[in-house]
Amino acid sequence: QPKVVTSDKETAKILKGAEIPYQEASSSGATSTSFKEAALSLEVTPQITPDNRIIMDVKVTKDEPDFANALNGVPGIKKNEVNANVLVSDGETIVIGGVFSNTQTKAVDKVPFLGDLPFLGRVFRRDYVQDQKSELLVFITPRIMNNQAISLNN
Length: 154
Fold this sequence. Notes:
By secondary structure, the chain is mainly beta. It has a domain of 100 residues. Helix content is 5%, strand content 65%. The strands form 2 sheets. Strands 1-2-3-4 form a 4-stranded antiparallel beta sheet, with no helix packed on it. Strands 5-6 form a two-stranded antiparallel ribbon. Strand 3 and strand 4 form a beta hairpin. The longest helix has 7 residues. The radius of gyration is 24 Å and the shape is flat.
């Protein structure tokens, strides 16, 4: 369970992902390697109210490489983002959802050679499609820490 400590009205960010390298050509013909970032990130900016509740501005981003639609070998980036502004009590858990993923995979199981025969091969082959749907849920529990609690954590 990742944890992060931040101050009132200061943005905190957690990021996990990868940088995808690709070749880029300049006008002179030289090539260089550039990178595209594909990551899951969470940004939160808390604001403590006078009654010790917390207003949180939350941004969840899930970026994935799109190798199926690559252009000249450079994959695009599929972007999914959810923004929320919530008011919670100290220690109360919120759930943020809405980042959906749908993957469709086509596959073939066959008997070697026999599955490749025209017409008759259908008897020795199985074509199938697998659908996988998922939703990313983010659970956030903010806690107000006084100066003494912060020094004990360090």
